[in-house]
Amino acid sequence: MKVLNLFIALLLVCSSSLAQKKSGAIAMYNEFWNWVDKNYIYFDAKKVDWKAVYQKYAPTISDSTSEEELFKAMDQSILALKDSHSVISKQDKTGSFYNYKAGYEIHDDFKIVKKNYIVDSLSGSKIMFSGLLKGNIGYIRLANFSLTPDFYKALRNLKALKVEKIIIDIRSNGGGNSNPVPALLSQFVTERLALGAYIEKTGPGRNDVTKPILIYTEPKSNDTWNVPIVVLINRVSYSASSYFAGMVKGLPNMKLVGQTTGGGAGGHLGYQLSNGWLIRVSVSDFIDKDKRSIELGVEPDIYIENTKEDIKAGLDKMLEKAMEIKF
Fold first, then answer.
1. Residue 12 scores a pLDDT above 60
2. What residue ranges define each of the domains in the chain, with the CATH number in brackets?
3. For residue 20, how many other CB atoms are within 10 A of its CB?
4. pLDDT tens for residues 267-280?
5. Do 77 and 57 form a contact (C-beta atoms < 8 A)?
6. With a threshold of 0.85, does the pTM exceed it?
7. CB atoms within 10 A of CB 56
8. pLDDT tens column, 167-214
């Protein structure tokens, strides 16, 4: 995931607040609003009227506005972007994150998978589990998106066991690092294929963006592993997990099953305001093979979701559907 992220570095600078230049509340809100206006990439995609946001909050601010009230106004303005990658922070407080899960029924319990579906556990850690399901189906669960050496070892083990299919479960996976995905997928393709493209903000105008920067994968060697792969997704599959889903969708011998992901395609950029507060907004986008942004989520090839009743009964209908799929 190509992320233009100065946020962490700026947090270190912010810790020395006494060195920061301070301005009046009106000037601070204007600085904040203008920087977001020039850099945020999803105003049109999210149908955000940023001028209307200014008209709502700017009149409530005067130079006698307290720090707490000013922070709240900026925080509420950021929430209007409807983007969980965008946030405001100061030394002792981080603002609110947009809830991309609101309105969705999300029922997922990994304990049920381990108890009722796994027939043989192969490896496990805090971020990854691998095992076998009935029908000689390989299973890998990623708690966050980190393709560690353990992940590749799990794949090698499944290859040695000559599994019929692999299910990669990234439900409830809030993201991580998607940079290794093209190299991972190179093991499963027989020709050079486009996975999607990045678009980056280049100027203050709404349409000031780069031409799509294509991302490819190509066969790693002549020893391609032609095993069917099903990727399980839900609404909590966010950020790097959505990147992975977007790159996988449409590839030969691969299917997405579950709910539409949470999206989160934006690479983000941080900025330090004159008073030392930090803001971060999305400044780049990822589009799929059909030139559609994945910011609002990646749709599965087969839509299915668990109900509360399924979970109470110890059933994972989403996993069962993934196990049933024939290629």
1. no
2. 7-94 (3.30.750.44), 110-266+281-324 (3.90.226.10)
3. 16
4. 999 999 999 999 99
5. yes
6. yes
7. 14
8. 999 999 999 998 999 999 998 999 999 999 999 999 999 999 999 999
Q: Residue 174 carries which DSSP code? A: -
Tell me 239's DSSP state: T
Residues 6+ apart with CB under 8 A from 306: 107, 108, 315, 316, 317, 318
How far is 173 from 169, CA to CA, in rounded Å? 9
Are residues 222 and 160 in contact, defined by beta-carbon separation less than 8 angstroms? no
Residue 38, both tokens: 């020039």
φ, ψ of residue 212 in degrees (nearest 5): -55, 130
* Contact (CB, 8 A) for 246 and 233: no
Per-residue tokens: 305: 């979701």
For 1, 178, 179, 243, 245, the CA distances from 286, given in Å and listed in that order, are 9, 12, 13, 8, 12
Residues forming beta bridges with residue 233, ordered by sequence position:
258
Give 143's Cβ-side CA count (13 Å radius). Answer: 10
Q: Are 31 and 77 in contact (CB under 8 A)?
A: no
